[in-house]
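User: Show me an example of a complex going from sequences to structure tokens.

Assistant: Sure. Here are the input components:
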Amino acid sequence: MGTWREGQRIGDTQHIVLPEPRRPRFSGRRWILAGIGTLVLANLLAIGAYANSRFAPDNEGEPGPRDTVPVAVREGGPVVDARGGKAASHRIPDRTIVLTFDDGPDPQWTPKVLDVLHKHGVPATFFVIGSQTSRHPEFVERMVREGHEVGAHTFTHPDLAGLPGWRQRLELSQTRSAIAYAAGITTPLVRLPYSSGVDSLDDEHWSVVRAAGAEDLVSVFDDTDSRDWARPGVDAIVRSSTPEDGRGAVVLLHDAGGERSQTVAALDRFIPMMRERGYRFTTVEGAFGASTPGLAPGKAGAGDKVRGGLLVWAVKVADGTGRLLWALLLLVGVLTLARTLVLFGFAVRHARRRRARTWSWGPSVDEPVTVIVPAYNERKTIAAAVRSLATGTHPGIEVLVVDDESDDGTAEEVESLGLPNVRVARVPGGGKAAALNAGVALAAHDLLVMVDADTVVTPDAIHKLVQPFADPRVGAVAGNVKVGNKRRIIGTWQHIEYVIGFNLDRRLYDTLHCMPTIPGALGGFRRQAIRDAGGLSRATLAEDTDLTMAIHRAGWRVVYEESAVARTEAPNTLGQLWRQRYRWSYGTMQAMWRHRRALVEQGPSGRFGRRGLPFIALFSIALPLLAPVLDILAVYGLFFLDRVEALIAWLAVLVIQVVTAILAFRLDREPLRPLWALPLQQLVYRQVMYLVLVHAAATALTGGLLKWQHLRRSGEVAAEAT
Amino acid sequence: MGNRFVGRARTTDLIRLDAPRPSGSSAARGRADMPDVATRKIALPDLTQAIFVDRSGRRGRRLRWIVYAVCALVLVLLALLWLSQVVEAG
């Protein structure tokens, strides 16, 4: 015998091993894919951080010593040509204005500036930032198309003097590549960030000018600084821009970096005013071309364009990834907060109602109960489980152990107990669902309780569990399952998770009538409800979730009885926990898919489908699947953002979780001591929980087969009970 | 040993000589019996049919190759990007 599916034997009884139909060609494949994914994401985040100048020093210090700056340059004109190792400075001719705009392009202000220039028919020179060019290449293309001149203003606007040589070269070459891609030209002009007039040039910046010269770039400074970045008012901008006594001037303005309406308005006044005074407007090349050869832009080669294209798209994709991550973080934050508030409201109300003196399900239910215990190789734990069940306080308990072809003497172990109200049924191996179906068929009574063989119940648990059946509409009852083995930290983590899950989530689901799962460890059923649901199915790996959904759809109420307490043995190692949760997540997805029609059906099925399924999909699948965003951005924040702020944000999330946990522990009257493990839970357990969900979702997508796996029992819970 | 002669079954000439021939009329003649609904086998859905499982492995294979192709493309683009920058900086 064994487990059969689709007419094929797929494994031994209940023993279900990992992916079928075929072994992967190499088992490290998914780790390689995960590694590639992480690498690409890290690259995109780093590119995004770079383009947002998170690597760049941007402080403008006081000018340093000026011993090496030639006097001719320091007292010369605004164009410094240091190409080919020489150092020539050029002055602008009289009555000539070169308008220069730094820091663009900006999607809001650059078009406005271009419109004003177009209106007056005036050319200008734009020193664009490479990262901004990557984001808005269309404006740079428009500049060139409308006859303006484009120069480089570095890629991320750092103070180049503070950077090593290779970074300086990169800043300049990247900007030129981006311009080449955007407008198809190469530019010989550069303006160094934080530079103003040549008189403020110090030794450090002079070396940068020479380095730019070595890259075949001519540095452009200014004669008059409009100081428009300080938004001093239109009059002040016009005043500061105007040169004295009919002299010419390279005027420094900005078309980006903040609100620039004053700059636009000032231009509209400055241009006609200067024209009236007999000034002509031109570009750097137009003003200096006669004295300095090679200022005209060249045609960009294919190599430059490809390099620029790669860069531009890398920045675009990185920006998009960043925006997506922040949007997801916002979504996760809002959903988590909403869920927490809803949980608080509903759980507290639920607990109050249940604790009220007037609360009762109806007349006491004392009808006999059959407890079905499916068992496969549970010799270590079965005796304690059966004894705790058989000696319960409920009148008329029949314990029915369904032995699913165990080969470790499980059935003999039960028989040797010699308890009068315990029966053992040996069934041909067919998995847990088949064993439970056999149990339902063989049960002597109509009230059924299903208990796992590794679970020990409190003496009054069965009695408490069946009380809700006083209400004839109730078809199934979920018990309150706790982790019995919490000596190791992994047990403590699961204990915290169980207490929160059972006390908050289940109370909420109970109030909303959409309980997704009666735990296999402790659940009560009416035999009729199971019949109406069509019995237990082997179609999913979470037969308890599947059955619960089917019972809902058959029109029965499913409730939670928190006073019926059972202690179960939770996985003891991370590997076992992974396998258990892998099965649960996959099984839940299968069950939801199996019952998807409930979304459109009429009657109780539709009521459950439209209320329960979206809720479960959102909070049990989508929200945990999005949880990695929190960690990705936490790591990103640690590297590229304010570390203190990132830490505070992370702690805020932790505080929400601690408050939630405290509330859950209080509602369940559990001691708060295990909560010390909560901060540590954020560092390992949480990640395992969502990675396992990703793994299960990937298996569902690819159509691989996931099978039941038998957990290795330590017998810890059973040992404590005896 | 007895007589080893086995003999030959007799067939009527009517069957032996009859050759299939096209029907002389386009109209259907007679009436087929109603199917016996009472004893027809009901096609039950296979309750053990696992959900999401694609036993042929085609879906997984296709998806895997798409993922491989995307990964390869992205890695090549990233490598090109870095290389182009290294060449410039170097």
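The lines above are the inputs; the final block is the predicted structure for all two components together. Chain A touches chain B through 37 residues (CB under 8 Å).
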